[in-house]
Amino acid sequence: MQALNLPPFAHKLTQSGPNLLIWDVLRRRHVVCTPEEWVRQHVVHYLITHRGYPRGLLSLERGHTYNQRRKRTDLVALDAEGQPLLLVECKAPAVPISAAVAQQAATYNQTIGAPLLLLTNGLDHYCWRVDFAARSNVRLAEVPAFPVAPPPARPG
Fold this sequence. Notes:
This protein is α+β, with helices and mostly antiparallel strands. The protein has a domain at 35-140: tt1808, chain A (Alpha-Beta Complex). The protein is 20% helix and 34% strand. It has two helices and eleven strands.
């Protein structure tokens, strides 16, 4: 598998017929290791091991409805109260993080309502803090560690 711009982890790969499978610690089963899944598993381990997100507060492929259509998020991290905290959109390494990818994630986040948004293809990562009231966002240098501090109060 392709080396990514994320910390390596002790992944468990196995072959099942023509499919390469990877052990998913959240779903507790082997899943097909597509390039996008390879990125998603790296992000899961990064959030747990390096940013302190509790495994029990991570949700993969969570369903939601947007414009009366069923959609699925790649990964959502919840806060201690069970509310969406971080929406992650993963793409395969060959897929650039474009304006269309950002629009897809922002569209999903209109119904999810997470104050943090992460877009990654495993090589390039973009993280924003979203302020829904001010209808603005601020790009962050890295994914905040858990627990995430609230944004600073706005003057005025």
